[in-house]
Specification:
- It comes from Kibdelosporangium phytohabitans.
- By secondary structure, this protein is of the alpha/beta class.
- The protein has a single domain, classed as Glutaredoxin, CATH 3.40.30.10.
- Helix content is 41%, strand content 22%.
- It has five helices and eight strands.
- Strands 3, 4, 5, 6, 7 and 8 form a six-stranded mixed beta sheet that branches. A two-stranded antiparallel sheet has the order 1-2.
- The N terminus is likely disordered.
Length: 153
């Protein structure tokens, strides 16, 4: 096999290994009050059509941040580990709801998502007005944005 093909094969393998490391989630998960919603130790839940109403019930008692993203989206892959880390550091002050754009198209339509990643803060089953964050601008900007959403009540 030629040298460029070997480099390409090695590059693809390296990307696959890096992607799987970035996309892995902690194995420890505890069921929330409703059995359809599983919140892991870092206050993160995967939101689907099946458990959406239960997540909206949680939003009546705490801030829920819906993270609309996809595995093929580079900014989404940059955002994911940072926001998951912050969800753990904030100690349950908000619940991070991860929405996969490829498998939950109905939720993308419901929220009229046009760009990935998009963060949508929800309180009492309603989106906080004029509060979306589109794209990933770094950890400090994300932390500032989260603090602003928590300050809204």
């Amino acid at each position: 096999m030629s040298l460029p093909k070997n480099w390409l094969r090695a590059g693809v393998a390296a990307v696959a290994v890096a992607a799987s490391a970035l996309l892995s989630t902690p194995a420890t998960a505890v069921p929330a009050a409703d059995t359809n919603v599983v919140v892991n130790a870092e206050n993160v839940v995967t939101v689907t059509s099946a458990n959406y109403s239960q997540v909206m019930e949680i939003s009546k008692t705490k801030l829920v941040i819906l993270d609309f993203g996809a595995t093929w989206c580079p900014p989404c892959r940059q955002l994911k580990p940072v926001i998951e880390k912050l969800a753990g550091q904030y100690g349950g002050r908000f619940l991070l709801g991860e929405v996969d754009a490829d498998t939950s198209r109905d939720l993308l339509s419901r929220y009229r998502i046009q760009y990935l990643p998009t963060l949508v803060p929800v309180r009492a089953a309603a989106e906080l007005p004029n509060s979306r964050m589109i794209g990933f601008k770094g950890e400090s900007a994300l932390r500032t944005w989260i603090d602003a959403q928590l300050a809204k009540g």
